[in-house]
Design brief:
The complex is a heterodimer of chains A (about 290) and B (about 270).
Chain A: H1 3-23, E1 26-27, E2 35-36, H2 40-47, H3 49-81, H4 85-94, H5 102-112, H6 119-126, H7 130-133, H8 141-169, H9 173-181, H10 186-197, H11 199-215, H12 218-223, H13 235-245, H14 249-273, H15 275-286
Helix pairs in contact in A: 1-14, 2-14, 3-8, 3-11, 8-11, 11-14, 13-14, 14-15
Chain B: H1 2-35, H2 56-97, H3 101-112, H4 118-131, H5 139-161, H6 166-174, H7 179-190, H8 192-208, H9 211-216, H10 225-234, H11 240-260, H12 262-269
Helix pairs in contact in B: 1-11, 2-5, 2-8, 2-11, 3-5, 5-8, 8-12, 10-11, 11-12
The chains are: A mainly alpha (about 290), B mainly alpha (about 270).
């Protein structure tokens, strides 16, 4: 009974992942023969300034994504876990971005931020804010990464807020009632009850943000295509361009393996520290 | 000091949620309002207040091939969900009922799959798909979409199946029911909420999926919605209002589902982190 699922998983997911490693020692243009070149691709990676830059950009994006998304998601999630019609209504709207594909989000933002015709710059012009009105958000080398970071934050906060909301709802109300009797104010309650009890949620959310940022492709691909130049070209984008645009599939595989190792290592920590490990061990005992 | 911090806290609780509301709503409002404004006033009119409302932009994108993209996305989504429900329910049931070491070893391998970043496997996957002769077909999008979500789907189902008391299985077995009758008459009804979560999670991933169709298909006849949107962005024949009309159209089925079954949708969305 497990066979169909297992076979599909093997042929279209696990198998390809494992094949990426040997493929990284070859040269292949996508059509012709696959030839063995040893460590050439890996040596090339160390000499490729775009690859090194991609690693740097990926790291910046990951660190700042986490720094921006975590506090906002935490506050929004805890707020939405509270009761009341007003919060329920806000929650209804807060989660709408979750329904949009990253392509849809990227297209909406790139039009909103268009320096000539977009709503943002037009509004700045109308308000007489000439400094803001002339900014080319996604077209300037020094600005594009910041803009991308803000759009990524906008896109993924709702998901993380949802996780924190679910976590905060698990906290027994009696704890807050007891704290109130002891005269603890809202901020103290947050620091001494909410925050410690949300630590597992925080681990899950943090790891998903980190792995998501390291492997994020869609939103950057549509928003900037890695540009201007290579200013927002992350590791997954570099892999895509090397493979599917330049047909250096061997070299692209080496980049993919690097991505896979980092992503898997972090996911492994996620599986160990968060709830997945508990589900797993419980399952092992049951079987 | 204490009263000051209380006041600051109250102020933050009053102000911050509204600030975030504005940040969330502004781009969505811009998308909607641009999609329904006459295309000719896009460059000159007030970006936030259209002078008239029109459906023309929707008609334009639907006539530019978007109807085909929508149809393809429906096929991919329905195909992915149907296939996923069948294979992952069978597997979860098999693992749950089996006493053999093989089943638990299969589970261990599947759990490994929770950690596979799609991007790391995409080049060999391209190789597999082309060698199987599936390149540029909708099946090339469906099969990997199912495969990569098999682990999470099985896990969601397993946590539910574990709570079915074994007495129920024993009772059905003593009535002479085979494994498939037990599956259909006992397991499916009892795990309906988990099946719904699996269906929603996979449907959202399939409907919004971009990387698989981008790399594993090519022709406009098999183009799905997210790739279609991307193609519109680079096609200068498509005006911005029409492009944003396409964006709105792409989200409409999910927005309707959200209005109808918000709880189930959110549970499906949060499945990966729960």
């Amino acid at each position: 009974m497990t066979l169909p699922a297992f076979l599909l998983f093997l042929v279209f997911a696990l198998g390809p992942l494992l094949v990426a490693f040997p493929l990284s020692f070859t040269q292949w243009n996508g059509l012709g023969p696959i030839t063995w070149v040893g460590l050439d691709n890996w040596a090339e990676m160390l000499r490729d300034p775009i690859a090194l830059n991609a690693v740097r950009i990926t790291l910046i994006l990951t660190v700042f994504s986490w720094l921006l998304q975590t506090p906002i998601s935490l506050l929004a999630g805890v707020y939405l876990a509270g009761r009341g019609r007003y919060r329920a209504l806000l929650g209804l709207i807060y989660f709408v971005p979750l329904l949009l594909s990253t392509t849809a989000v990227a297209i909406t933002w790139s039009n909103l931020l268009d320096p000539n015709f977009g709503g943002f710059n037009a509004t700045a012009r109308a308000l007489g804010l000439t400094g803001l009105a002339s900014l080319n958000w996604l077209g300037r080398r020094d600005l594009a990464l910041v803009t991308v970071l803000l759009v990524v934050t906008w896109t993924f906060i709702p998901f993380n807020a949802l996780l924190y909301q679910a976590g905060a709802r698990q906290i027994p109300r009696s704890l807050y009632e007891a704290a109130q009797l002891d005269g603890a104010d809202r901020i103290r309650q947050f620091r001494h009850i909410t925050l410690p009890l949300l630590r597992y949620t925080m681990v899950t959310s943090s790891m998903l943000i980190i792995v998501g940022s390291i492997t994020s492709f869609d939103i950057l691909f549509v928003l900037t295509g890695g540009g201007p130049g290579t200013a927002t070209r992350t590791l997954p984008l570099h892999m895509y361009f090397e493979g599917f645009q330049s047909y250096h599939f061997g070299y692209a595989s080496a980049l993919a393996v690097l991505l896979g190792i980092v992503g898997t290592a972090i996911s492994y920590v996620l599986v160990r520290v968060s709830g997945f490990a508990r589900v797993r061990s419980g399952q092992m005992e049951a079987t | 000091m204490a009263t000051l911090s209380v006041r600051l806290g109250s102020l933050a609780v009053a102000v911050l949620p509204v600030a975030w509301l504005v940040i969330v709503v502004v781009p969505i409002y811009y998308m909607v309002v641009t999609a329904v404004r006459p295309a000719r006033e896009y460059l000159t009119g007030n970006p936030w207040l259209p002078s008239a409302l029109t459906w023309d932009n929707f008609a334009q994108v639907l006539n530019s091939g978007f109807a085909v993209f929508l149809r393809n996305s429906v096929i991919v989504t329905v195909g992915t969900v149907a296939c996923q429900l069948v294979v992952s329910l069978l597997a979860a049931y098999g693992i749950n009922r089996s006493m053999s070491g093989l089943a638990s070893r299969a589970l261990a391998v599947l759990l490994l799959g929770l950690a596979i970043p799609v991007q790391a496997a995409i080049i060999p996957l391209f190789l597999v798909i082309t060698r199987l002769g599936l390149y540029d077909t909708l099946l090339a999008v469906i099969l990997p979409a199912v495969a990569f979500n098999v682990p999470i789907s099985i896990l969601i189902l397993l946590t539910y199946l574990r709570d079915i008391p074994s007495e129920l299985y024993d009772a059905m077995e003593s009535d002479g029911a085979g494994p498939f009758r037990i599956l259909w008459q006992l397991v499916v009804p009892l795990s309906a909420p988990a099946l719904t979560t699996v269906a929603i999670y996979n449907a959202l991933a399939a409907w919004n999926g971009f990387l698989f169709p981008l790399i594993l298909t090519q022709s406009t006849e098999v183009r799905v919605v997210p790739v279609g949107l991307y193609a519109f962005k680079n096609d200068h024949a498509i005006a911005v209002p029409a492009m944003l009309a396409a964006v709105l159209l792409s989200a409409t089925p999910l927005l309707i589902a959200y209005v109808v079954g918000r709880r189930q949708m959110l549970r499906g969305l949060a499945a990966i982190g729960a």
